[in-house]
Amino acid sequence: MKRETPSPVLIRARDAGRVSAWKLPDMTDDERDRLIALAQKPEPEPITEVKVVEEEVYAEKLTLAQWEAIVEEARAEGLEQGREEGLEAGRKEGFEQGLQQGLEEGQAKIDAQLQRLEALIGALQRPLEEQHQALEATILTLVEQLAGAVVQAELASRPELLTAAIAQALDCLPPNPGPVRLRLNPEDSALLETQAELQGWELIEDPAMTAGGCELLAGASRVDVSVESRFAQVADQLKRRLLPAAADELPDGGGEADPK
C-alpha cells in the first residue's frame, strides 16, 4: 500500500502571531549520554497494595468465682515472694551484724590477753633486772678486789716494775721538760738513790704514796704512775672484759700526764 505524504499546513502572515526561530537540540557528548541513560532507565516496579484486616478478639467471659480465684492466686504469689525476699534480707543483715559483733568481741578478748601477757612479762622481768643489778654490783666488787690483789702481787714479786713505771712516765713528758722530781714512798726511795744520782732526779719521800708507785713532776707536767692509778687501769680492763655494758660508762684508768 502506498503511503501518502501529508500536505504542508500553510499559515498566512496575517494569521501568524509572535514566532521564534527553531534550533536543533544540544547533542554534545554529555547531553547525549544523559538522554541515553534516561531512555535506558528501567521502569519502577508496581507497588503492591497492602490491606489491613481488623479482627475482632473476643475475651473469654469469666465467672465471679474464677475472677476471685485469679485474684487470690496473685495475692498468694505476692505474699510468698515478699516473704522470701524479707527472709533473704534478714539473713544477710543478721549475718553482717553477727560478723561485726564477733569481730569486736574477738578483738576485745585479744586486747585483754595482751594486757595480761604484758603484765606477766613485766612481773617476770622486774626480779630478773634486780638480780642482774645485784650480780653486776657483786662482780664489780670482785673485780676491784682481784685487781688490787694482782697489782700487789706484781709489785711484791717484781720490784723492777717501779723502774719500768718511771721509764713509762718519762716517755710521757714533752721535749726538754726541765728538772725531774719523783715523789714516792720512803721504802722505794732507797732503791732508786743510785739511779737518781746518775739521772739527776730529785727524790721526794712521801709516806702517803703507796710503795711501788710514784708521781713524776717536771716543769709544768705531772705524770701519775701511782699504785692507785695502775690499780684503776687493771680494774678497768677487767670490767671491760666481764661487764662490757657497764664498762662503757667508766672513765679511762691508768697513769696520766697532767700539765700544770
Describe the model:
It is built from seven helices and five strands; from the N terminus they run αααβααβββααβ. The model is unreliable at 253-257 (pLDDT under 50). The protein has a domain at 140-257: ATP synthase, E subunit, C-terminal (hypothetical protein PF0899 fold). The protein has helices at residues 29-40, 64-157, 160-171, 186-191, 193-199, 227-242, 244-247; strands at 180-184, 202-205, 214-218, 221-225, 256-257. With 260 residues, it is α+β, with helices and mostly antiparallel strands. α2 (64-157) runs antiparallel to α6. It has a five-stranded mixed sheet. β3 (214-218) and β4 form a beta hairpin. Helix content is 58%, strand content 8%.
List keywords for this structure.
single chain, elongated, 260 residues, 5-stranded mixed sheet, 58% helix, alpha+beta, 5 strands, hypothetical protein PF0899 fold, 8% strand
Present the secondary structure layout.
Elements lengths: L28 H12 L23 H94 L2 H12 L8 E5 L1 H6 L1 H7 L2 E4 L8 E5 L2 E5 L1 H16 L1 H4 L8 E2 L3
Parallel strand pairs: 1-2
Antiparallel strand pairs: 1-3, 3-4, 4-5
